[in-house]
Amino acid sequence: MTDACPGPDGYNKNMINILLVDDDPNIRRGVRMLLALEPDLSVVGEAGDGWEALALARELQPDVVVMDIRLPTLDGLSAAERLVASQPHCAVIVLTLYDDPANRLRAEQIGVSAFIGKQKTDGELVSAIRSAAFRVNTSREANQCPHDARE
To answer: Could you say which of 5, 44, 65, 126 would form a disulfide bridge with 17 (CB–CB 3.0 to 4.6 Å)?
Structure first.
């Protein structure tokens, strides 16, 4: 959650800020609508490909990025790998139709927080987002976030 380390635009400190990444705008819209039902979740940006996701994650500093695997220009697992390496205080959750052992293994090796098939229940995604944000928030507090100097 952003209370320990708000993004550069000073989002609501009681919210978990989320970046959605999927090449299908209908999927993004559906996930955004689902998350809008939760009082502690806020979608702060959306991207349709891996490179756009990396740029927006740098700019927006979300707590959690929910990312598909199959993306144009840069696939989701490659984007997740770059994101995990460059922004360790941002959790990545894979949300995909391509739920197979090879993708799960690569995601685990990269260090994503959760791997969820799109066919799973909505509650699993919401729970995974909250869990990942809690772990990120705990890590930020332990490592003194550079944004704290703004407060």
So the answer is: 44
